[in-house]
């Protein structure tokens, strides 16, 4: 009989198929393929993007020319725009407002065909430190309530450009999915006076069954309530609501575990398409929050979301996270 | 500047792109294609499925043989199983239970390549009346809290079999997405003493801008807060939380509007993949509910859901529902 597991943060149920022992080779997936051509994110094509907002580049090289390692530009087709006011208003029973926000693209590498697992450790560190720089800059704009960093890699994951990049969106309201996580985490904290994510880390380290990798500062594991096959969360062991306050040592070990985790997944599924999302607490001035714990949710595209998931919010995971962790660790 | 619109039921925000005037031909989509072969849902192959639960068939023909128009069977690979108990239990901070439930397949037509828009009106009526029969049967099992009827049509919509069918799932708990809708609708009702869906119908009929089709009992329209391009809701004008109590006249006009709505969409996007979901109130004995109003949500697969939507629960709709309704009405 299958098992129902309940996510203790948002209260979402997942149907974990414990009956059919799925193997990695049972998943059909659409691999990321490359169509070389004129890519606006490639080295030498700097003039094809909006001007640089921030950049890591060799000393003496000019903005918007070669010489860079990491580049941040405005999204050429932004979902939200930075000028203007929110102007919330009603229309009969409906509410609406202007599409205020920021939408940036963080180009992680000059190389078209390199994913994170193909980069050198210090290259991963570079773009992760740029995550912090952009977050620390955007947090100053008092119109924004939430910063969302996410990555769509491969066409099956909805990437419109194949060159590796992270998108950064600053939102004028706390989005629904985040608000739900916050409500769940806060009510756990209010009741137990402990962070639910710290408790998850404790339980995962005790059970050891779902761990993918571990270092001094981070843990990478297949969550007990995985929605997707080979879903992985990367979580700092030290409590903090925000990644933007990480020190250099932490960035270094995050780069290491992120790169190695993706390499482990790609060892099983070469050229996999995937999404990852940085889950952080809403902007709260300079104050950290006790009840929320930032982390990365890595979601491989191996199955399709269909009517059942859309209607219920239930997910069906055809492979248990315990088995997925075993495969990732070649056990 | 784009527009942010807030769904008054669940509180979800959608970014509606009002800047770029997208046309239907701007959407690339993967059409439903047919690979003829041995299909367990085809006429003559009745022995390839689990035995019939209910059937509409010619008098004098035997169960599990040809002679049928609509057939309901158990899902051969059920996500949930009908035998046993829920047995809710804890595991450290996690909750879990057995995968109790029902998972049926309702085969709408004996013809492999026919979608709803290709059927005769009375054939659509036949399978819709079977929706009611199955719901009225499953509702008697006191272990179930919710009945979900949904349809994945085409491989891009996650259909594993191309022969048209509806899936029926009976769940031992009210799923998260439904619970959220209920909370929103109920708090609107508590405050205004009116059903929010009745108010939506009133506003849509007044504004006329987003209506696709209308008959005596039903309205089909592109909702103001569409998450997807060409999303359409079909809603009964008369208040009720459940479709299972529909009379023959209502079933007849639902068949008409459902078929014509899908035909209008397919007129623009031939062989489109799509999902539709029947949203109903949770099982509540024999009592109807005042605050919830059943309806069908039709979601064409024209765009991909990626990291942004996963992380935020925000959606980005590149075409306004007002424009979509115009295209559907050839204006």
Measured distance between first and last alpha carbons of chain A: 25 Å
Please give the most extensive interface between any two protein chains, plus how many residues each contributes.
Answer: A-B, 72 and 72 residues
Helix content of chain A: 10-25%
Please compute the radius of gyration of chain A using only Cα atoms. Answer: 20 Å
Low confidence ranges of chain A: none
Folded structure, characterized:
Two copies of one chain form a homodimer. Helix content of chain A is 25%, strand content 24%. Chain A contains six helices and 15 strands. In chain A, the strands form three sheets. In chain A, strands 3-4-7-9-8-13-14-12-11-10 form a ten-stranded antiparallel sheet, with helices on both faces. In chain A, strands 1-2-15 form a three-stranded mixed sheet. A two-stranded antiparallel sheet of chain A has the order 5-6. Chain A is globular, with a radius of gyration of 20 Å. The model of chain A has no long low-confidence stretch (mean pLDDT 93). At the A-B interface, strand 1, strand 2, strand 6, strand 8 and strand 9 of A face strand 1, strand 6, strand 8, strand 9 and helix 2 of B.
Question: What tags apply to this protein structure?
Answer:
homodimer; 331 residues; alpha+beta; ten-stranded antiparallel beta sheet; 6 helices; 15 strands; 25% helix; 24% strand; globular
């Amino acid at each position: 009989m299958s098992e129902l597991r309940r996510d203790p943060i948002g209260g979402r149920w997942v149907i974990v198929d414990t009956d059919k022992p799925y193997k990695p080779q049972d998943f059909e997936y659409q691999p990321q393929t490359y169509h070389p051509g004129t890519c606006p994110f490639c080295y030498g094509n700097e003039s094809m993007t909006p001007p640089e907002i921030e950049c890591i580049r060799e000393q003496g090289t000019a903005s918007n020319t070669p010489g860079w390692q990491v580049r941040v530009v405005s999204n050429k087709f932004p979902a939200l725009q930075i000028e203007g006011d929110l102007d919330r208003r009603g229309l009969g029973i409906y509410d609406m407002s202007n599409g205020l926000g920021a939408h940036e693209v963080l180009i992680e590498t000059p190389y078209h065909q390199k994913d994170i697992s193909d980069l050198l450790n210090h290259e991963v560190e570079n773009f992760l430190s740029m995550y912090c720089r952009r977050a620390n800059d955007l947090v100053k704009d008092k119109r924004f309530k939430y910063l969302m960093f996410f990555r769509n890699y491969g066409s099956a994951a909805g990437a419109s450009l194949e060159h590796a990049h992270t998108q950064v969106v600053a939102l004028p309201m706390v989005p629904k999915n985040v608000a739900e996580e916050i409500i769940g985490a806060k009510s756990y904290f209010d009741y137990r006076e402990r962070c639910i994510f710290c408790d998850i880390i404790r339980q995962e380290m005790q059970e050891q069954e779902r761990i993918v990798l571990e270092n001094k500062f981070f843990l990478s594991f297949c969550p007990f309530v995985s929605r997707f096959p080979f879903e992985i969360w990367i979580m700092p062991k030290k409590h903090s609501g925000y990644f933007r306050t990480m020190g250099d040592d932490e960035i270094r070990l995050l780069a290491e575990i992120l790169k190695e985790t993706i390499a482990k997944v790609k060892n099983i599924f070469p050229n996999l398409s995937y999404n990852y999302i940085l889950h952080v607490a809403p902007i709260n001035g300079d104050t950290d929050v006790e009840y929320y714990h930032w982390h990365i949710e890595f979601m491989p595209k191996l199955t399709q979301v269909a009517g059942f998931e859309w209607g219920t919010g239930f997910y069906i995971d055809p492979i248990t996270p315990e088995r997925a962790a075993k495969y990732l660790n070649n056990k």
